[in-house]
Amino acid sequence: MLIKSKRGWELPESAVTPENIFLSRRGLMAAGAGFAAAGLAGRAEAQGAADPTADLYPVRRNETYTVERPLTAENVAGNYNNFYEFGTSKQVARAAQALPIRPWTVKIDGLVEKPQTIDIDKLIRAMPLEERVYRFRCVEAWGMTVPWTGFPIKALMDMVQPQGSAKYLRMETFDTQSWAPGMRSPWYSWPYVEGLAIDEAAHDLAILVTGTYGKPVPRQHGAPLRLIVPWKYGFKSVKSIVRISFTEQRPQSFWERLQGGEYGFWANVNPAVAHPRWSQATEELIGGGGRVPTQLFNGYGEYVAPLYRGRERERLWA
Ligand SMILES: Nc1nc2c(c(=O)[nH]1)N[C@H]1C(S)=C(S)[C@@H](COP(=O)(O)O)O[C@H]1N2
Ligand SMILES: [Mo]
Prior knowledge:
Blueprint: H1 18-46, H2 74-77, H3 93-96, E1 105-110, E2 116-119, H4 120-126, E3 130-138, E4 142-152, H5 153-160, E5 168-173, E6 193-197, H6 198-201, E7 207-212, E8 215-216, E9 226-228, E10 241-247, H7 254-259, E11 282-285, E12 290-293, H8 301-304
Parallel strand pairs: 1-10, 4-11
Antiparallel strand pairs: 1-2, 3-4, 4-7, 5-6, 5-10, 7-8, 7-9, 11-12
The structure holds the ligand Nc1nc2c(c(=O)[nH]1)N[C@H]1C(S)=C(S)[C@@H](COP(=O)(O)O)O[C@H]1N2 and molybdenum atom (MO).
The ligand Nc1nc2c(c(=O)[nH]1)N[C@H]1C(S)=C(S)[C@@H](COP(=O)(O)O)O[C@H]1N2 binds at residues 1, 81-85, 138, 173, 192, 221-222, 234-235, 237-240.
């Protein structure tokens, strides 16, 4: 994620150039992504952490949403992450192993008939899990293709029964913690918050993710529960969710609050609408997949365009 004013925390502009991404990716591969992956696995075992939901995976793939390009390799996707709670670089996978993912509860509150604080394992076992292979597009102009396991947010909405006055969902990551070194930075306003309009959340494509690559989701991808809304820029897809509130007012998201001129609420992918500092016309597929044209709504327009009828006057695209 990149922000405008030149401050200590800003990533260099070059971070969004394809050469830079490609070179750093190649560098990482050459320097031993295999070693990094082995290290991560060893560390998780050292924590004695057999995931209590491991028996549920792999899960049946829903073939409704097919993708024309190959999957991104698991160790590429899992070693190139945005998770600012653990630092501003893409190499946060190691640091993220400090995230304690059990016990974990999700508080669901606000304008619902059945507010509750639910244990993550109880929630995961109650929800209809399926695998979805989606395109994923970061606002920084890189993309990947990942098999996510999760469930439609709609299933959770059916459980808690939103009231008629609920217009938005506000989703929040854990608040400041000693084991999350990125949260010591005074520049950001923690916790990370994102939001959706309630009809967006109820769309079948919008899922809460519990797994990737046929296994429980690893910490660097947002364990134990993260959002994936594939037609929007990646920053909408908040990780490691601890609270989901149904609200009447539109929530202000993390990046919107920090740099609202560059990152808005709707943030739908559109190749024709440039970011203030770079084009969104194409994206670099991480892992050496080359540079490809970006698609309107990241290729999901046939499903989601109707959500925005009547909202044309809003800033829908970034
Ligand atoms: N809590 C939290 N969620 C987050 C972020 C973050 O820094 N913190 N980064 C976002 C951004 S900018 C992107 S591109 C995706 C990256 O997801 P991935 O690392 O699993 O690929 O997570 C999003 N969710
Ligand atoms: Mo992003």
